[in-house]
């Protein structure tokens, strides 16, 4: 259910052990992977439900002189639904990966459809992304994206790639590793005619205690649209096999986070897609815990959000996942979420369950 991160995408290119001596050899030594998934969700308070099946296939050639090609397809089929129209007009399948990459010790370039996971650019994009590693302790990511798809995944109806404004969007993201426990980062985004944004991040961890602080602000290009801002602080601590965390998120008082979420987001810790964390003048406090027992991973998080000057919403998420010991590569996950909204008519109480078999 989680999207592939940029760091994983790059490491897969750099660290692949399959090398070829000819174009034909590159295809012969290529690797095919995929997933079979079954997913169901229902909301008892608004009487909706959806079940779907999904299959994804990915093929990657072996590396030849640093070059590699990747192709991926995902197809989702509605199995059952109740008062759910999300599949109406949705495509049955989407090519979400189709790129050519080049990797060397100094840099990596990926051109085409690919997964991206940066501070405010996530999910799948039709883009050109370069990662530069020539400066000691520093990673610089430079990219240009033309199209964006937030729904090329196995737990919802699919969508097509959509163009980003009239000129796409550009990003420069730099991270400096100060020492083994601390790193700082800064980035600049620009989607001409829509918005631009700058942000910074600091991460440190000492003796099991971690701190992550983030800040970003937008400069809106659309007339009469106010700029957005966000400040986020997350504190974590691990005791044995149990990890605790809590944090505070503050959105701007004039226009929330503005257009920051246009190309994806990674700060909201809560599950519901319509949570108020990014609303105008939203202030969110949350606490959570996670632990692993044998093959089980258990998670819980509770958050409250004050927004739009005088409104309030709270959300509880409880989830568990299990790596099946009887069937290799089979993972089972369940989630329960309860939302107490400002108006009782907007309250939600939903669950989801998913089986994923990877091959």
- Give the tally of β-strands: 19
Please summarize the sheet with the most strands: 18 strands, antiparallel, barrel
Mean pLDDT comes to 93
End-to-end CA span:
15 Å
Describe the global form: globular
Order of helices and strands: HHEEEEEEEEEEEEEEEEEEE
Rg over CA atoms, rounded to whole Å, is: 21 Å
What is the helix fraction of residues, given as a range?
A: under 10%
What is the SS-derived class? Answer: mainly beta
Give the low-confidence spans.
Answer: 1-16
Quaternary assembly: single chain
Total of DSSP H or I helical runs spanning 4+ residues: 2
Give the strand content: over 45%
Q: How would you describe this structure to a colleague?
A:
The protein is mainly beta and 359 residues long. It contains two helices and 19 strands. The protein has helices at residues 6-15, 23-28, and strands at 31-43, 48-60, 67-82, 93-103, 107-115, 124-132, 138-149, 162-163, 169-177, 182-191, 195-206, 209-220, 229-239, 242-251, 283-293, 296-307, 311-323, 330-340, 348-358. The protein has an 18-stranded antiparallel β-barrel.
């Amino acid at each position: 259910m989680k999207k592939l991160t940029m760091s994983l995408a790059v490491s897969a290119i750099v660290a692949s052990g399959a090398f070829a001596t000819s174009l034909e050899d590159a295809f012969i030594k290529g690797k095919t992977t995929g997933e079979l998934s079954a997913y169901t969700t229902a909301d008892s308070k608004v009487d909706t439900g959806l079940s779907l099946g999904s299959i994804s296939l990915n093929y990657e050639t072996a590396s030849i002189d640093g070059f590699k090609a990747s192709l991926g397809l995902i197809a989702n089929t509605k199995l059952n639904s109740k008062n759910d129209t999300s599949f109406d007009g949705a495509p049955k399948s989407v090519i979400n990966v189709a790129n050519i990459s080049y990797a060397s010790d100094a840099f990596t370039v990926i051109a085409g459809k690919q997964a991206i996971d940066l501070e405010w650019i996530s999910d799948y994009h039709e883009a050109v992304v370069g990662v530069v590693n020539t400066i000691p302790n520093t990673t610089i990511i430079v990219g240009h994206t033309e199209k964006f798809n937030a729904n090329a995944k196995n737990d919802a109806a699919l969508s097509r790639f959509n163009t980003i404004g009239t000129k796409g969007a550009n990003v420069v993201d730099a991270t400096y590793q100060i020492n083994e426990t601390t790193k700082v980062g800064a980035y600049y985004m620009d989607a001409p005619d829509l918005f631009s944004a700058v942000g910074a991040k600091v991460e440190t961890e000492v003796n099991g205690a971690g701190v992550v602080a983030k800040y970003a602000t937008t400069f809106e290009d659309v007339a009469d649209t106010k700029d957005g801002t966000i400040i986020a602080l997350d504190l974590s601590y691990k005791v044995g096999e149990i990890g605790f965390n809590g944090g505070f998120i503050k959105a701007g008082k004039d226009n929330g986070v503005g257009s920051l979420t246009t190309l994806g987001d990674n700060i909201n810790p809560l599950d519901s897609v319509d949570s108020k964390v990014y609303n105008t003048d939203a202030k969110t406090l949350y606490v959570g815990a996670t632990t692993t027992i044998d093959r089980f991973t258990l998670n819980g998080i509770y958050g409250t959000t004050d927004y739009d000057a005088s409104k309030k919403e709270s959300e509880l998420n409880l989830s568990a996942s299990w790596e099946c010991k009887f069937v290799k590569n089979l993972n089972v996950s369940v989630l329960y979420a309860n939302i107490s909204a400002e108006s009782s008519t907007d309250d939600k109480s939903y669950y989801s369950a998913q089986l994923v078999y990877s091959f």
